[in-house]
Amino acid sequence: MRGMFRTRSVVAAAVLATAAVSVGFAQGRGGTAPQATPQRILVQVTQVKPEMAAAFENLIKTELVPAAKKSGQPFRWTYTNGPVGGPGFSYTAVTPVADFTIFDQPNGPAARRAMGETAWSAYQAKLRPMIVSTESSLLTLRQDLSLPGAGMPPALALVTAYQIAPGKGDEFTRSMTTDYLPNYRKAGVKSFAVYAVSYGDVPQGRVVTVRGISKYADLDGLGLLRQAGLSAEAANQINLRRAALATGASNVVQRFIPEMSFGAIPRAAPSR
What we know:
alpha+beta; Alpha-Beta Plaits; 8-stranded antiparallel β-barrel; 25% helix
């Protein structure tokens, strides 16, 4: 979960705080939408030439991150594919989108304005030879299907992308809210988010779930439904019901890179 949804490029930004969402699926029980401002993220996936990976990481750390901070950007989180799924030398950067007016700003990204034209041109000249490809998607958090965390990036993000079958969006929502979320809470899950694509070269009906974990060993042992106390048969029936709603699914684990990142999710303002 082309772009960020080809497994390698799914969101590496788990638990992006509370927000409303409404992209392609019923919003909560009965299809009613939470009255809050949607919280969106821009996800940029960059495939880097292997021999340039170290130089790319250093360039982002020493030039782009300071400029983004200077511009007042609340956060920028960078993840890379770990040993579980996805090609190497792929970097996923996640930044907030308060509203669409940020794309109307003159002179492009805020980091460009913070650097100034001369420094920005020099930065781009260094960056271009390092890159194989880059793609972007705009995502919106489905608050009704998420368990928001504390606003800090997890060390590892377990990302699952589902292609929901046409006409099955309401059933997916019901399954998440009745089968999964209550049991995830019982299992002690704190960091779990569901995203829908707003803009991007991906099929309609794509859903991405992101669970933050602290170490790979967290993936060992019983699944979350069993940890919640369900029997093997009950857990299997729930998983079969969800499998019947999706035409495909994929999993990857992505690793957070602190040196290429900064900031935390600001508290959402209360709706009016």
